[in-house]
Task: structure prediction
Amino acid sequence: MTQTPINSLGSLAKIHRRGFIALVVAFPLAVRADSSLGEGWILLGESRVNLIKNFSIVPVTLAKGLYTGLVVEAVDKPIFIESIEVTFTNGETSELRVRSIIAAGSRTRKMLLPGLVRGIRTVKIIYKRIPTGGSATVRIYGRRSGA
Result:
């Protein structure tokens, strides 16, 4: 098996050719639309929340586009989401109240962002600990403008 050196932050790291090819092939799939939500919804990010702290911040770049709405999905465990604080690229913030338990495998309602079209810098999920404990995975989807 051939290894190709890749310079990363001044240190020499090695990566297998098959791993690199898998990464290159998988990258376009990570930004694909989620058809179960409808037209124009894409995955913005994912976070593993430990349910001991009370918030998690997911960075989103302007390179992913401009958005008109958000949806949060609980992937593997239920989570009580208090609110979602969105920081836009111009520095403004907006708080979207959720205040409900999101069951494993389900999503919040489709929430509209204030204004017409917004670039998102970060999404802060504010949640409360629930009796199940442990950690949970949440995914954030955004509705692209013009979709």
Remarks:
- The first strand starts at residue 3 and ends at 8.
- The chain has a mean pLDDT of 77.
